[in-house]
Write a structure and sequence with these properties.
Elements lengths: L2 H12 L12 E5 L15 H10 L4 E3 L5 E3 L2 E6 L5 E6 L13 H12 L3 H8 L3 E5 L3 E5 L7 H5 L8 H4 L16 E3 L9 E6 L23 E5 L4 H10 L4 E2 L7 H6 L3 E4 L6 E7 L9 H10 L2 H9 L6 E2 L24 H11 L6 E6 L3 H16 L4 E6 L1 H7 L13 E7 L27 H11 L4 H18 L2 E7 L3 E4 L2 E2 L13 E2 L2
Parallel strand pairs: 1-10, 1-11, 15-16, 15-17
Antiparallel strand pairs: 2-3, 4-5, 5-7, 6-7, 8-9, 9-10, 11-19, 12-19, 13-17, 13-18, 14-18, 20-21
């Protein structure tokens, strides 16, 4: 029996199982795409941590439906005539989950911790930013030169924590999860590998303006939200159909027709932006500290093969011909894209010319994530076809996240490559594109060093207009295909599935829990 037939049969058979009582109308049961291994969205870059972060913490600004930053925790700001001093005032009524009022020192300390880990924060600090407070309601950011992306930065996953928590070293994990957002994290119920739970923050004060994407009113309609970890995709789909779960973040594409055909469930594509699938590469150690070898891998990559492995007969959920920037957004271009030839014969010749000596390449694969788990075998086969000695290691996503931080060689527990993805807004332009950075060991996992890329990025930030930015983006993509900081595998759009009585979903690539409610 084919894999997709087996999964479909398992899911269809499970429909007959008795459903749990849904009498608790104020409870939402959610099946996440991965286990919440670490709930610190500053320390880690995992999507599941960001999903958790938007529930628990608020942000100073947020993107609206036009992808423009609007005040969220902030009531408003003033900018000096020389554009060097930004003065922000908090809105009234902000309270942390422990009952303490949100103060300007909480924002300043949180922003400083965030700025050490996020590209836009690092960029802001490079403009000489100095943060100070003026009482409990006002904080100021003073610059040495104008920074036009200030509000975009403060809307970029800049989660606000109490000062005592935000003082944690950004390269260490927090252990206290008191938040400022619409839901409280119930730490005592958090069981890694099993699930987590959240309760509505009774004293959270939503903005009074209409919701527009992430901006505006964030209203918690459920008293309690439970995350249920179910790595088996057929079991997860069955739980949704029987009513044991209300929302399945990432249904297996093979099972979408069944979910569409069940009147109790529906499939949604809330995602209008997508994500870029990519292979992260360890540039510190053999075999992939060899640029010529990496160019050989690029030459062998067939983006369509990766996308079809994950999305099968759902072509509306993916796109190919994808470079290093998000397809369909302003910096998208075709410069150098021809290197993605899917030419195995040429790639094998390039491997021979690269000086590759047969070193073992450890490819980490997350077995508990449907999409990334589908990418990994295709990458393993691609590497094997061109003569690379592949050690394909399957683990859960939480373990992979822990291991990817190791800068040791593979003989000492390190790694060579893993398949991952970045949401489209996170790689839409050079200011936010973390995997494109060339800052070595100070950068994203893989740690490529590329001073020329950093110079181009600086030029892009200082560019006078959009046309100039686009030209620089083309040069950056050409350089990326030469030095290969990562390998783009294609772009895909997230389908999600939910019980038919849920409404109010925010059109965002990943789950947003405020404003979702049950009809009837």
């Amino acid at each position: 029996m084919r894999r997709r037939d087996f999964l479909a049969a398992a899911a269809a058979t499970a429909i007959a199982r008795p459903a749990l009582s849904q009498s608790r109308q104020r409870v939402l049961r959610f099946i996440p795409q991965a286990d919440l291994a670490n709930p610190d969205p500053i320390w880690t870059t995992t999507t599941v941590a960001y999903n958790h972060g938007f529930m628990v913490w608020d942000t100073p600004y947020a993107l609206d439906a036009n992808y423009l930053p609007r005040p969220q925790m902030v009531a408003g700001h003033e900018l000096s005539d020389d554009k060097l001093t930004w003065r922000f005032t908090l809105r009234d009524g902000l309270v942390f989950h422990d009952g303490e009022p949100v103060r300007s020192i909480d924002l300043v300390t949180s922003i400083l911790r965030w700025a050490k880990r996020r590209p836009l924060g690092q960029l802001m600090m490079s403009f000489g930013a100095e943060l100070t407070t003026e009482g409990d309601k006002v904080f100021t950011i003073r610059l040495k030169k104008p920074f036009g992306l200030m509000l975009n930065a403060l809307a970029d996953y800049c989660f606000i924590m109490p000062e005592r928590i935000a003082r944690t070293d950004p390269f260490k994990q927090i252990s206290d999860y008191v938040g400022s957002g619409p839901y409280r994290f119930l730490r005592d119920e958090w069981k890694p590998g099993a699930g987590a739970a959240y309760a509505r923050h009774e004293r959270y004060l939503p903005r009074q303006d209409e919701t527009s994407l992430l901006a505006g009113a964030r209203i918690a309609h459920f008293d309690r939200i439970e995350w249920l970890v179910m790595p088996d995709p057929a079991s997860a789909a069955a739980a949704l159909q029987t009513g044991e779960a209300d929302w399945l973040e990432s249904p297996l594409p093979d099972l979408l027709p069944i979910l569409r055909g069940n009147p109790a469930t529906r499939v949604l594509r809330n995602d209008r932006i997508g994500a870029i699938g990519m292979a992260a590469i360890n540039h510190l150690h053999p075999p992939f500290n060899n640029r010529k070898l990496l160019q050989a891998v690029l030459t062998a990559v067939d983006q369509k093969e990766f996308m079809q492995a994950a999305f099968n007969n759902e072509p509306e959920l993916f796109a190919t011909g994808v470079g290093v920037f998000t397809k369909g957004l302003p910096m998208d271009n075709d410069e150098g894209i021809g290197i993605l030839k899917a030419d195995v014969a040429l790639a094998k010749k390039m491997v021979a010319e690269s000086g590759y000596k047969g070193e073992r390449a450890v490819l980490m694969a997350p077995g508990d994530q449907a999409v990334l788990g589908a990418f990994a075998p295709v990458m393993a086969a691609t590497l094997e076809r061109i003569g690379i000695n592949v050690d394909h290691v399957t683990t859960d996503w939480g373990t992979l996240v822990q291991r990817r931080s190791s800068q040791e060689p593979v003989e000492k527990g390190g790694w060579s490559m893993f398949c991952t993805s970045y949401t489209g807004l996170s790689v839409m332009d050079p200011a936010v594109h973390l995997p494109l950075r060339g800052t070595g060991k100070a950068g994203w996992f893989g740690w490529p060093t590329d001073p020329d890329m950093e110079k181009l990025r600086d030029s892009w930030i200082d560019a006078p207009d959009l046309a100039a930015q686009k030209q620089i983006a083309r040069r950056m993509q050409a350089l990326a295909f030469e030095n290969v900081p990562f390998i783009p595998l294609g772009q895909y759009y997230f389908a999600t599935a939910a019980r038919a009585d849920l409404t109010g979903f925010v059109p965002w690539p990943t789950p947003i829990f405020w404003n979702v409610r049950r009809s009837g």
